[in-house]
Structure formats: structure tokens, C-alpha cells
Amino acid sequence: MESLKDQAKLDAASYVNEIMDDAKLNANQQAKKIVIQTIQRVATETAIENSVSVFHIDNDEVKGRIIGREGRNIRALEAATGVEIVVDDTPEAIVISAFDPVRREVCRLALHQLVADGRIHPARIEEVVAKVKKQLDNEIIETGKRTAIDLGIHGLHPELIRIIGKMKYRSSYGQNLLQHARETANLCAVMASELGLNPKKAKRAGLLHDIGKVPDEESELPHALYGAKIAEKYKEKPDICNAIGAHHDEMEMNTLLAPIVQ
């Protein structure tokens, strides 16, 4: 009788181990299947950006007017926009250099207006730059709103809307940051649906996961943790904040959304 019991225990243990091995294998295969299906269902586009923009001019005579007497115009434009302007022998082109792409865009648009208008002097430069900054800020907000509407995401704080809009002018690893955020949002929603989780929450977390890369002020925190801090500041729910903060393993995951965003 004891021998039969021992054999039954061995058989049962073997059967349990076999079931566990099969479950692990099936889980791994299913996870791969979900990822592959998700990637196949969501198209991606890559946009390359760098730290310079080129402003094209009709002729090189314009360069002298942009530089101004003793360089006063170019200094005023650099001071107003926070960029470096390179005027060299490159035919019919002026190079605008700055790490912040929003500043480069302000300078490019201001140059376009100044050259078209013909009045280029320090006072006029300050006036045009101030006007362009206001216009661009409105465009940033509109981009953020349109993105949220396109993705069906509601109730975002106005400041988060503005941050999303600014992503249009940022890049990360060679890809436009707004495009990356939109793709991540859609990927997360599809994977959440496949796993029986809330796709709307996953989409929201995916859209916001890189907001820490668009700071208005310098932060010593890694972008994921800084993003979680921003999300918390603007009243996002704890599971959304955790998914943002944990997507580079710098915060412990305590929600099922986190591994999806990661």
C-alpha cells in the first residue's frame, strides 16, 4: 500500500510539473503571438530630427540685412529666440542651431516674417519673435488637443495637453516623439485588449509615457520618474503614474499597465 502511495505521489508530481512546463511554454508562445499581432496591426513611421534647422533665402544679399550693422540684428535675434545663427558661405541658406527644436522653429518662423516684410532691426525683431512665440504656443495646444481627440482620450489637464503638443517638435532615438507616443498608445491599447485589460487606460498611459522628455525646466530625475511626477502633479490616477514611472525599471511596477507600457 505504501509503495502504491509513493508511486502515486511521484506520478502526481510528474503530472503537475508537466502541466506547469506546458503552461509556461504556452504563455511564452501566447505572449509572443500577442506582440507579433500587435506590431502587424499598427503601422509605424519614423521621422529623423537633429539639432539644426536650415532657413532658405532667395539670394545671399539677405544675409547682410539679417546680420545688420556691426551684427546688431543677428545678436538681437539670437537673444530673443535663444538659438545660435550661423551665417557662412553656404549658398542661399542660414543655419539655425539649438538643442530645443521649439526655439529653432520660433527663429525660423520669425526669420520668414522679417525677410518677407523687409523691416529688419532690433525693435522689429523683438516684436516679431513675441508674436511668433504666441502663435506657436497656440499651435502646440491645438496639436495636443487634436492628438487626444484622435486617440479618444478625455479629461487630460490643460498642461498635459500642452506637453503632448510640444512632443511634435521633439525627437527620441531618431523618431519624432509625438509620433512615437501615438504609436505606443495604440500598441498598448491593442495589447491590453488581447490580455483582457482596460484598453483605454493602457492607451492613456502609452500616450503619456514619455512626457518627462518634454520638460519646461531642468530635472535631475530620469525622464520616466520625472514623467510620473508630472502626471501625478496634474491629477493622473496612480496606475497611470506607475506605468509612466516604471517603464524603464526605475520604479517598482505595481499595476498590470506597467509591463504593457514597458
Helix and strand topology:
Layout: H1 2-41, E1 52-56, H2 61-67, H3 72-81, E2 84-86, E3 93-97, H4 101-117, H5 122-151, H6 158-166, E4 171-172, E5 175-176, H7 177-194, H8 199-208, H9 223-233, H10 238-245, H11 257-261
Antiparallel strand pairs: 1-3, 2-3, 4-5
Helix pairs in contact: 1-7, 3-5, 4-5, 5-6, 7-8, 8-10, 9-10
Q: Which descriptors apply to this entry?
A:
262 residues; HD/PDEase_dom; Ribosomal Protein S8, Chain: A, domain 1; RNA-binding; mainly alpha; 63% helix; HD_domain; 3-stranded antiparallel β-sheet; hydrolase; 5 strands; RNA binding metal dependent phosphohydrolase
Q: What would you say this structure looks like, in words?
A:
By secondary structure, this protein is mainly alpha-helical. The chain has 2 domains: 52-139, K Homology domain, type 1 (Ribosomal Protein S8, Chain: A, domain 1); 155-261, Hypothetical protein af1432 (Orthogonal Bundle), CATH 1.10.3210.10. Helix content is 63%, strand content 6%. It has 11 helices and 5 strands. The chain has a 3-stranded antiparallel β-sheet with strand order 1-3-2, with helices on one face. Strands 4-5 form a two-stranded antiparallel ribbon. The protein is elongated, with a radius of gyration of 26 Å. Mean pLDDT is 83; it is low at 40-49.
